[in-house]
């Protein structure tokens, strides 16, 4: 929250924000971007379920080699295949909802479909 912005001004009854979307984008202080279902935001160690990491990759456009695209990597596909990710709340810089129908929501749906077919 911005300095001087109170919870009551934002319509929050307590100090913990509530999200009404299934997925949230979590940006960590080291710049890493994670997406998932965030639980326990009011704790020191929130849990991110169905977690994905965002990787920025070249779009492969020969006419515009600097063009990039976002790629989601399921955390369950990394070598230790975690069922969830625990985050130190002090390392969270920003949390935003993933709006249904947004580009990120579409990427999530595509990745989830690919993961279920791979099983």
Number of helices: 1
**How many strands appear in the DSSP assignment?**
6
**Termini separation:** 41 Å
Q: What percentage of residues falls in helices of 4 or more residues?
A: 10-25%
Report the uncertain regions: 1-10
Strand content bin: 25-35%
| SSE string, helices as H and strands as E | EEEEEEH
Structural class: mainly beta
- Mean pLDDT figure: 84
Morphology call? globular
Biggest sheet layout: 6 strands, antiparallel
Question: Roughly how many Å is the radius of gyration?
Answer: 16 Å
Task: Describe the overall structure.
The protein has one helix spanning 103-118, and strands at 24-28, 33-39, 47-58, 68-74, 84-86, 92-97. With 119 residues, it is mainly β. Strands 1, 2, 3, 4, 5 and 6 form a six-stranded antiparallel β-sheet that branches. Strand 2 and strand 3 (47-58) form a beta hairpin.
């Amino acid at each position: 929250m911005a300095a001087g912005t109170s919870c009551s001004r934002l319509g929050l009854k307590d100090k913990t924000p509530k999200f009404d979307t299934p997925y949230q984008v979590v940006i960590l202080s080291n710049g890493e971007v994670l997406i998932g279902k965030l639980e326990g935001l009011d704790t020191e160690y929130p849990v991110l379920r169905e977690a994905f990491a965002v990787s920025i990759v070249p779009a492969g456009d020969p006419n515009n080699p600097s063009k990039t695209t976002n790629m989601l990597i399921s955390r369950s596909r990394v070598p230790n295949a975690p069922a969830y990710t625990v985050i130190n709340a002090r390392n969270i810089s920003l949390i935003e909802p993933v709006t249904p129908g947004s580009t990120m929501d579409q990427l999530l749906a595509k990745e989830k479909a690919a993961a279920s077919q791979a099983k």
